[in-house]
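Title: Prediction job returns without error message
Component: structure pipeline
Severity: low
Priority: P3
Assignee: unassigned

Description:
Job completed but the reporter wants confirmation the result is attached to the right record. Sequence as submitted:
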Amino acid sequence: MSERGRNRRAPWRALILSLIAVVGVAELAITWLALHPNVPDNYRAYYIDQTTTCLDKPVSGLYALGSTVSFMPDDQKNARKLRVCGWDGPAGDGTHSVGTASMLRFAVPTSARDGLILSMMLTAITAPDQRDQHIVLTGNGLPLGEAIIADSTQRRLEFPVSADMLAAGDGTLDITIAYPTATEMTPRDSITHYRSIKLMSVQLRRPGDRPSQGPQDDPAALRYRAPPDGPNA
């Protein structure tokens, strides 16, 4: 091959080698991003690491402090403002937990940052092996409390919410309920379908306010259950 022919091909060879190098670098970058995606922690935990069955969803948490919100079928509108993830229903006996964790969100006014009380009415599922249900609560990532509810038993629980816990949230209180003893209800159930409790009502109140006695204290529930000839018909 003449010197002139070699000189003509040299630029093309350099260009092709450069393109190969660019493609190689791009593939390496794509592989690195696939192995180290820049995603929110809750997205990573749910989809990638699969360390939780509860994917944080954007709910308002809109809530009137001190009020009772029923998680029975009678006040779905207000309950859905608090339900973040890990809930199914409601059914006639409450809103069922699904998976190994659930979350509730409350919008908290700045005037109520000195400490509050969380009240919950709930029932443990009827487990196939009659196991008790152990629940562990955190508030804004800090330990809140735990309880053991006997199989098929209804309980009203209260947990003090500290000022430090409220300060850890940006105007909200995120309550995470973990279920170490959640169980499959049918053979080979997916972990995302495990069950533990049925939530009936919640209340977040100031110390000294009247404690909730259950879903019947929700005004919307009272309207729902009023007889046809009652004042709310």
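Comment from assignee: result matches the submitted record. The mean pLDDT is 81.
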